[in-house]
Structure formats: structure tokens, C-alpha cells
Design brief:
By secondary structure, this protein is α+β, with helices and mostly antiparallel strands. It is built from five helices and seven strands; from the N terminus they run E-H-E-H-E-E-E-H-H-E-E-H. It folds into two domains: about 90 residues, no CATH class; about 60 residues, no CATH class. The strands form three sheets. A three-stranded antiparallel beta sheet has the order 2-3-4.
């Protein structure tokens, strides 16, 4: 069976007017739904709402195209499309910065120090707080920290979970 992949095929110049940016003609395309995950579509600017409703994402330009066309492709074409999309995600969605931030969270901690995240939305913005819980005794490098086991027991209840966790109190035993 022949491998088929979509390509953008702008039929006129309207994509440049109706979308935030237009895809280049002939580039590989995906639906791009991941760009809208978790967003309030009704609150988006008009051109982004149009992209949500009718645009396919060009993997190289991250621009949008109304029509796409199915074309024959090779496994090399498929691999290139994957690499191009991955590079675009890194460049446009901040993967390098995210990894740098994650490294900064762990940088000053000893091995096996647990770092717990508490995330909230305050005044429409995401706020993250981090807490640490250090092991009580030395443990083998790479081992699952058994000294933390009591801090993370799972209890089944019929009550709503409380939003805040005090890891320091849990660590004191």
C-alpha cells in the first residue's frame, strides 16, 4: 500500500488574510489541533478562531492552510515531516526553555530529593509552587527513595481532595 501524506495547497491568497499566518504552498501538513488544546476557543482572536475551525497546520511554517491534498510519500518523507514538526515544536513552544527551567529546579538538590509541584490559576495566569522533601538516610543512587514512601500514600475517600499539601509536615513523620 502506498504511503500518503497531506500537503498544503492554497487555492488562492485568502489564507494570508483569514489566518494569523498562511502555510507555504506544498509543505507537509497536520491538523494542528494540539495548538488549541485547553484553550477557550470563543475567547481567541478572530484569525485564531478561523484557524481552529478550518485551518490545517503546515509543519515547516506553522502557518495555516484551508485545503490540503493527499500526495504519495516515502518513508523518508514521513521521517522528514516528523523531524520538521518536532523542530518547530521545540522552536515555537519553548521545549529548550522548559528543559532549562526543569534543570534549574533540580540543580541545587542532592540525589533522591523529591520535588513536588502545586499549580494553580490566579487572575488568569498559571502559578507554580515547588516544595522539596529530602531523604532521611542515604540511599543507593538511582533507587526509588523508600524514605519518602510515607509521604505519598494513596488513600481512597469519598471526600473532595484538599488543594494544598504540606510536604514538610509529612516529612517530619
Amino acid at each position: 500500500m502506498t504511503l500518503m501524506l497531506p500537503r498544503t495547497i492554497p487555492l488562492d491568497r485568502s489564507d494570508g488574510f483569514v489566518f494569523p499566518s498562511a502555510a507555504a504552498s506544498g509543505e507537509r501538513a497536520v491538523t494542528g489541533a494540539f495548538l488549541f488544546e485547553g484553550l477557550d476557543v470563543e475567547a481567541l482572536p478572530r484569525k485564531r478562531r478561523t484557524a481552529f475551525g478550518a485551518g490545517c497546520l503546515g509543519v515547516a511554517s506553522f502557518g495555516f492552510s484551508t485545503p490540503i491534498t493527499a500526495v504519495e510519500a516515502t518513508e523518508e518523507d514521513r521521517a522528514e515531516a516528523i523531524e520538521t514538526l518536532a523542530a518547530g515544536l521545540v522552536a515555537r513552544l519553548g521545549a529548550e526553555e522548559e528543559i532549562a527551567f526543569a534543570a534549574s529546579l533540580a540543580r541545587d538538590h542532592a540525589p533522591n530529593t523529591l520535588i513536588a509541584l502545586h499549580r494553580t490559576v490566579e487572575q488568569g495566569r498559571i502559578r507554580e509552587q515547588f516544595r522539596t522533601l529530602r531523604p532521611r538516610e542515604a540511599e543507593a543512587p538511582g533507587a526509588i527513595p523508600q524514605s519518602h514512601a510515607r509521604a505519598f500514600l494513596i488513600l481512597q475517600t469519598d471526600e473532595e481532595p484538599e488543594e494544598r499539601v504540606d510536604l514538610l509536615s509529612l516529612g517530619r513523620g
